[in-house]
């Protein structure tokens, strides 16, 4: 058996939640896709707490691959993209740049990270 036949894919999980910043998901996804084009072996999974699609700050909706319960027991990399708090309403002149989410503003995301982080290498 050759060394290449024993190499397994690296499992990368994106922990997504409502109001995630699209560019924080899209740019890393593109990097993993290009790496695979050059022979890397990444399996990328988009996960949300319930397995439902999530909204982004760019008016787009992202479908996900799995729910939190369906994420494999062992993962190699966990990515948590940025976003804005779910109930944030930007008011020009009143707010500067929307803040990144805090654990108390995105409890589903916090719980997902708490459960997934110990599984990552």
If you had to describe this structure to a student in words, what would you say it looks like?
By secondary structure, the protein is an alpha/beta fold. It has one domain (10-86, 97-119): Rossmann fold (3-Layer(aba) Sandwich). Helix content is 25%, strand content 18%. The chain contains 3 helices and 6 strands, in the order H-E-H-E-E-E-E-E-H. It has helices at 3-6, 22-37, 107-116, and strands at residues 10-15, 42-48, 54-55, 61-62, 66-67, 77-79. It has a 4-stranded parallel β-sheet, sandwiched between helices. Strands 3-4 form a two-stranded antiparallel ribbon. A hairpin with a 5-residue loop joins strand 3 (54-55) and strand 4. The longest helix is centred in the first third of the chain and has 16 residues, at 22-37. The radius of gyration is 16 Å and the shape is globular. The two termini are 26 Å apart. The relative contact order is 0.23. The model has no long low-confidence stretch (mean pLDDT 82).
Break the fold down into its secondary structure elements and pairings:
Elements: H1 3-6, E1 10-15, H2 22-37, E2 42-48, E3 54-55, E4 61-62, E5 66-67, E6 77-79, H3 107-116
Briefly characterize the structure:
β3 and β4 (61-62) form a beta hairpin. The two termini are 26 Å apart. The protein has a single domain, classed as Rossmann fold.
What is the spatial order of strands in the main beta sheet?
A: 5-2-1-6
Count of helices?
3
Query: Which regions have little confidence, pLDDT < 50, spanning 5+ residues?
Result: none
Distance between the termini: 26 Å
Percentage of helical residues?
Answer: 10-25%
Instruction: Please report the first level of CATH classification, the CATH class.
Output: Alpha Beta
The H/E string reads HEHEEEEEH
Query: Looking at the chains present, what oligomeric state does this protein adopt?
Result: single chain
CATH superfamily: Class I glutamine amidotransferase (GATase) domain
| Count of beta strands | 6
What's the mean pLDDT score?
82
Please tell me what the overall shape is. Answer: globular
Rg:
16 Å
Q: Which structural class fits the helix and strand makeup?
A: alpha/beta
How much of the sequence is in beta strands? 15-25%
Shape-level CATH architecture: 3-Layer(aba) Sandwich
Largest sheet: 4 strands, parallel
As for the number of domains, it is: 1
The fold-level CATH name is Rossmann fold
């Amino acid at each position: 058996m050759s060394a290449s036949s024993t190499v397994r894919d690296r499992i990368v999980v994106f922990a997504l939640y409502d109001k995630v910043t699209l560019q924080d998901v899209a740019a890393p996804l593109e990097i993993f896709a290009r790496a695979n084009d050059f022979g890397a072996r990444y399996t990328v999974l988009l996960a949300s707490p319930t397995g439902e699609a999530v909204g982004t700050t760019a008016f787009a909706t992202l479908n996900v691959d799995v729910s939190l319960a369906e994420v494999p027991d062992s993962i190699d990399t966990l990515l948590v993209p940025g976003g804005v708090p779910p109930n944030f309403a930007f008011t020009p002149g009143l707010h500067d740049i929307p803040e990144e989410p805090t654990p108390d503003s995105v409890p589903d995301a916090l719980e997902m990270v708490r459960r997934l982080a110990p599984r990552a290498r």
